[in-house]
Amino acid sequence: MTADENGHPNLTELGYDERSPVAVDEHGHGHEVELPEDPFADPGLEPHRPRATDIDEKVAQKAERQVAALFALSALATIGFMVAYTEVPRTAVVNFFPIGAVSASNFALGMLLGIALFSLGAGAVYWARTLMTDVELTQERHLLESGSEAKAQAVAEFEKGVADSGIKRRPLIRRTLLGALAVLPLPALWVLRDLGPLPGDSLRHTAWKAGELIINDNTVSIDGSTGQGVKPEDITIGTLVQGRPKAALTAGDQYNDLMAKSAILLVRLDPADIKSQQQRDWGYQGIVAFSKICTHVGCPVALYEQQTHHMLCPCHQSTFDLSDGGKVIFGPAARSLPQLPITVDADGYLVAKSDFDQPVGPSFWERG
Amino acid sequence: MTATTPHAAGFGDGTAPSTPAGKAADYLDQRLGIAGAAKKNLRKIFPDHWSFMLGEIALYSFIVLLLSGVFLTLFFTPSMNEVTYNGSYTPLDGIKMSEAYASTVNISFDVRGGLLMRQIHHWAALVFVMAITVHMLRIFFTGAFRKPRELNWLIGFGLFVMALLEGFAGYSLPDDLLSGTGLRIAEGVVLSIPIIGTYVSFFLFGGEFPGHDLVPRLFTIHILLVPGLILALITVHLILVFYQKHTQWAGPGRTNENVVGLPLLPVYIAKAGGFFFLVFGIISLLAGLVSINPIWTYGPYVPNEMTAGSQPDWYIGFLEGSLRMMPNVEFNFIGHTLSLNVLIPALIVPGILFTGLAVYPFIEAWVTGDRREHHILDRPRNVPTRTGIGVAGCTFYGVLWVVGGNDLIATHFHLSLESITWAGRVVVFVGPAFAFWITRRICYGLQRADREKVLHGREAGVIVRSPEGEFSEVHAPISDGDRYRLTAHDVHRPLSIAQAADANGIPAPRLRRAKLRARFTRWYFGTRVEKPSTEEYRESITSGHH
Lengths: 368, 546
Ligand code: HEM
Ligand code: FES
Hints:
- The structure holds 2 protein chains of 2 kinds.
- By secondary structure, chain A is of the alpha+beta class.
- Chain A is 30% helix and 16% strand.
- Chain A folds into 3 domains: 1-40, no CATH class; 54-130; 205-352, 3-layer Sandwich (Rieske Iron-sulfur Protein), CATH 2.102.10.
- The radius of gyration of chain A is 40 Å and the shape is extended.
- Among the domains of chain B are: 52-298, Up-down Bundle (Cytochrome Bc1 Complex, Chain C); 441-542, no CATH class.
- In chain B, 61% of the residues lie in helices and 6% in strands.
- FE2/S2 (inorganic) cluster (FES) is lined by residues 294, 296-299, 313, 315-316, 318, 331-333 of chain A.
């Protein structure tokens, strides 16, 4: 059995006998109908149905006025925009449901510009839909593929060109050319070398060193240049103190670079709750300091739950147990928060005993 | 040819144009010889359908981005140098911040119309990426990527990736707390790349994070490099659409060898031009009404602060979810660290997803062995396997996206983060498989319904009682046009092994490939709903079956 291009089986091959079929209407009365030979054949473009604007000039004129009104509204809103630009004070605020307080200037400018643009667009679209032709037209579409002759000619032309160049006959030229072209892009990589310094061991060090004073973030002045140290008695059980090295106060332009590795947090735990001796030794009377930089991809951990000693990172919810060496208990981070060994100095302020014993923040290939 | 006067133009055949349009056209044609091209193209026919407007929305929002972006460049300072704020937004008074952040606050409060432009720019960015995405799904589900349009699919894919990059770069420019945190995450992701990650990160940031180079570099990328590439690709994309002519839906009078629709001049000029203003207008209204990215409330970027519950722009959400869901596996060996907990969710999973998207047309062509040119779109139901794959892909993406907001879900619905994350880990695998299965079934069901409609007409909504007392619904016959529309598609059959191998004598390695290919086509087309045959149709008409 063969089928036509739509996959409909061929009738005559099926031995179909062309009797006049009978259709039955809704009421069950049979009557004769003409059935086309192929009931699935393309009946051709449906006849155009005229719109109200096509047959009634009054309706068309009304549509014309509507389009014109939209264009006029657009022009008015454009002028309104320019007026609002100068007349609405920058600091005024309007307040309305459900959006709340918004800048009056932004509101006025946005609405007027929006109306100017929208009504221009609406007018054009409405014009196209009501007054411009909607008689569907058909254009031929030629398959994109060229004939095999044209293709053969194109290939022949190409080969003639190649033959004229002699590139096939002269392998020495061909090979040196390919070689030269192959190495030519390398300088594009070469010249990128000075985009940045090599990492060296910079990711292994922070601004902490023996005796570095811990500054309480809450005491730092607004310009970041002064701040006070922390005494053990300032930290009660359950409170969280965020800290930075004293060097941060004078870091100037390097402040963010410094803080990206050196931000810490301090909590006081009941020494009995601390799970390891090393953690107790690196703390001071139950006060322990941890890196604030999440070991997942580097967000600052922030949410402390004092009952459980859990520290949560707001980015992807890695949760660290501060009573258990900063161990990961949930989330995508794979490593504990590094602990900063601390002690007190001669004046009774908390200071670092040394730098972190490992790189802080996200993992990297050379970290080991 | 005889010249009338020594200065006569052109052919001097005495048919000098008299209308202004004619004169202008004559002027141009004498210099460019464009009459031929204009004659052919001014009244070029374009088919119409609402889903063909999605690409237009993408194009128009890109133009809006260009316009508003140029305005922003006039006031934005791409610098990470530290300044002390003393503008009119008093809560930030005296605070140290980067010039980038300070200038963005200034644009918002001290440049009239500046906030509007920022909000137009940001809203347009969201609309742009959304429109590209939905447009791409439209192309996928209707099979518009099939031969001869595979190359344009690749160009479109390139545009999609570039739009995501462009959006991320732009989002990062203001150097506020949220965008800076986004960059910190990006740094962590780059660091997770084996062997070269640390070096790439140092070259990108000009040293350690955050450094002072990134915002200026992103600025160049954001306003020159990527928009330039996008513009170039859009141009080629549209030239191809024009040259290959738009696809159309099956219907009476519409064949693979014609285009049915309305002429470019005037209808599409008016509709498309008008539509540009509609898109621009709606974006402006949004920007006037709905605040977006109020960076002054976040504060400048500092590496040691972060607010909970903050979310990136929507198109980055799936990466967030992917990162959040991943179990924390990391390996250490001979002095090296392999952070699979970051590498897999942030680079490998999107890599696979995007590669699959890019090469899908070629895979489908190989599986189906279909080498014909297609200019008639598929209804998604008529290609159930493709539709199933598409819905499965969307489900996968959707699960990642939803888990990206797991903290918000946890607080809104009082669920534990753990349970959401675990549910996500399961659903991300089970969900797509289920979606594939159910989608295919729905497609087959819809095809059967179409078949019914062809054979027995559509339900007319009238119940009649027969003389025997039976109730039945009246079926009204469908029009010739509808019958054609519902049966114009191909019902594909799996390839035999011989067809799959394209050859008579099959050497062994090719035989294995051919077997694989035949197996794939069986999976693709194994279950079919056949179209009614002429015989069945006549049978149903003559018997008056309801
Ligand atoms: C291809 C599409 C583009 C996308 C998706 C995009 C996206 C964005 C986004 C999300 C922002 C952050 C805006 C904020 O909320 O503050 C932004 C900022 C910016 N964009 Fe674009 N943009 C695009 C094209 C352009 C172009 C072509 C230009 C200029 C020629 C430009 C210039 C700027 C400038 C100067 C800023 C920073 C100023 C500010 O944030 O207020 N953008 N962009
Ligand atoms: S950065 Fe902390 S969980 Fe991802």
